[in-house]
Amino acid sequence: MINKALFTSNKEDWETPQDFYDRLNAKYHFEWDLAASDDNAKCSCYFTRDDNSLEQDWEGLSGNLFLNPPYGRELKLWVKKAATTGLKDKQNLVMLIPSC
């Protein structure tokens, strides 16, 4: 059964479950969490809402990048920035977005 709460617009920021993140991190060894809060950052290097990640230079960051952006009307801006960010050789950006 699908959890209907996953498709509500009452909340835009959803913390990534730690066990799911841990499995991704085991493969990618993330250096940066591009859309975090002080309470839920998955990496020691991260941007919060106050940092305005969409205005940061992601191309200047080292290591692999993790992104669970706020869901909502601005999601397309996050997808566009991720798609147009020039990554270094063997650098990855993993982005979690809704599939429906």
**Mean model confidence by pLDDT:** 89
Q: Could you say which overall geometry the principal axes of the C-alpha atoms support?
A: globular
How is the main sheet built? Answer: 4 strands, parallel
| Intertermini distance | 15 Å
Per DSSP, what share of the residues sits in E-state strands of 2 or more residues? 5-15%
Question: Strand pairing plus helix content: what structural class?
Answer: alpha/beta
How many β-strand runs?
4
What's the number of helices? 2
Lateral arrangement of strands in the main beta sheet: 2-1-3-4
Share of helix among residues? Answer: 10-25%
H/E series, N to C?
A: HEEEHE
- The residue ranges in which pLDDT falls below 50 over 5 or more consecutive positions are 1-7
Rg estimate, integer Å:
13 Å
